[in-house]
Amino acid sequence: MAKIISVRPEDTGEKLRSLYAPEGGVRSIFSAKVADYAASRPDYPQALFGALRVRCTLREGAVVADVGAGTGLLTRDLLKQGYRVTAVEPNPEMRAASDHLLGGFAGYSSADGCAEAIPLANASVDLITAAQAFHWFEIARARKECLRVLAPHGKVALIWNDRVLEDPLHCALDEIFGEFGGVKRAALLAHEERSGVPEFFGSTLSTHSTHLTHPEQLSWPHEHFLDEESFLSLVFSRSYIPQRNTSGGQEVARQVRRIFDRFKQNGAVAVGYRTVMVCGRPSP
Question: Count of domains in the chain?
């Protein structure tokens, strides 16, 4: 009888993270891209916050940990709902930008941390959010840490603004990303981040649940309008795109300006997204 050899599948998340290790790892990825990130990344549709309120039974003053908060784009809208929000962000430059943007909100605080090390007390949080951040998670450690800080009724919402890839504007951008993104972009594409969602929650994903015995997925159309400089920032905010002051970065800028001229209307381009939320409570 032939011996069956079990081969462990490649950890594409670990491979992705390892490519940034020479630059300081996950904590340093966006240090030089803070201004571009803040100037260009999209906000989130109001329907998302209505769904969070209902499905997570959130009331005014609810305690939220926004993990991988970046410059505070999602954090800001959570604060506007009347919640008390801690922006948990490992990158000091990103966290400083969030502090500058949101320091005037009474319910705001920030902390140095990540999904695997959330600097909050046991059972203290009603909701954990993570927007555009799940692909950086070490899933097993993050799942354990989220369960530690969640209150008994607490839930996790994983959120993405997905680009509408069949849109001609995004097709044009993908040509630039493919040309200049190199091995980092290839590793990001190879990392099927949402294949880790069932492992994180420990149960089957549902798109039609009326309760949250299983994590539920919802989505909404979304659109973001950018002028030429903000459109440039959108491209340069990508972790794998060369810095502006390099020869590669200068060529990227030339190509992006040509795309902007091609698609602009009334001095702006409309960037289409599909906002996706997966919400539930990880199983013990």
Answer: 1
What is the identity of the amino acid at 132? Q
% of the chain surpassing 90 pLDDT: 67
Residues 6+ apart with CB under 8 A from 163: 170, 173, 271, 272, 273
Whether residue 203 contacts residue 283, with contact meaning beta carbons closer than 8 Å, is answered with: yes
Report pTM: 0.84
* 7: in domain: no
> Averaged over 205-224, what is the pLDDT?
72
Residue pair 88/111 in contact (Cβ under 8 Å)? The answer is: yes
CATH for 170: 3.40.50.150
